[in-house]
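Note to self: the last two entries modelled the partners one at a time, which told us nothing about the interface. This time every component goes in together.
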Amino acid sequence: MKRRDILKGLTLLPLSGGFISKASAIGITDTPTPQKSTRDLFAELGVTPVINASVTMTFLSGSLMLPEVLEAINSTSHDFANMYELQDKVGAKIAELLHVESAMVTSGAACAIVLGTAAAITGTDHEKIKLLPNLPGPRPEVIMQKTHRYLFDQAVTTTGAKIIEVEGNDEMEKAFNERTVIALFFNAAGKHSVTHEDFVAIAKKHNIPSMLDAAADVPPVENLFKYQKIGFDLVTFSGGKMIRGPQSAGLLFGRKDLITAARLNHSPNEAPIGRPMKVNKEEMFGMYAALKAYLERDHKKEWQDWLDRAKRIGSQLETVQTVKTETVVDPGPANAFPSLRVTWDESKIKIKPEQVVTALKSGTPSIVANGGKDYLTVGVVLLRPDQVDIVAGRVKSILQQAV
Ligand SMILES: *Cc1c(COP(=O)(O)O)cnc(C)c1O
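The predicted structure of the combined assembly is written out below.
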């Protein structure tokens, strides 16, 4: 399933906040059931809370922050900090956790691509940093595979750089010249005409850094270590997807000289291209807390919990005549986790999957799921434990009503 496809037919609605710990009916309890606080801002503003039975999507507010992240945000909000020092210390800790030379917190993976490209263009040259994206002379060039072109490469051209498309090793070899600054690899692209290893080796041979965008590519947790081992000089992940940090935070990590240059291109410096991409103090602490919690979590148990959720929903739905369910795992690398595929005999249950999606969305509570021509997909990984049975009950009742 492509993110593009998932994006179709969904509406822009945020998720609920305000948590206290509470034991759940099943599985992992790290997304506690929320307790309504005395002030309900959703109600106050008339914003519809949404149950996400899909995948992490920016327009749907990304992910739900872990309790550790909310605690980090709250507990650090009462004092000032020097932002240079904070980025130093948080970056050093993240670098240690990820076994790299250096790291920084960015305002998301898209910002990391801007900063990584900017770093490769300017190095530590303050004059160039000030001029970006309007450097005099020919535009800096960034090498990408033709099959890797994607919406987020606008983050590359934001710096004033131009993208040079290549297909296969030979074309990549020939693409380097004195204007080349960096080579960008989109990890979740459908097709690689140059492998990860070759991409890194060819860039190294030409003494040009390589950067990899793996924004949505955990789980598995091992991916947080995999690409620096292959030799990519810079790697980025989103903070607000399955790592479950602040939605407006992300990670950029790798070579020290490049991170130093990326930081010079970022807030709290006042004039660089990254100044409008500020990350606040609480988000920096929060991103660190999220990464640490993510690395420390029992990933096997979490995976089992997701399978249990799918099974639990599936067994409730299969009580409706002709309904069949199957747990499917997206091969990734983006969104590589289980979800439930639901099919039925449309001559017996007279509703199409996309109509079920519409009914789920327009109901109360509003539920976002995905429906193709042939089946309904019910996502389980972003549900709070208390929402598992709610989703099962709603899908079941919509199907039953169509019998
Ligand atoms: C989500 C995503 C981004 C953007 O990440 P943010 O953290 O939202 O800035 C970039 N690239 C890919 C492949 C993504 O999936």
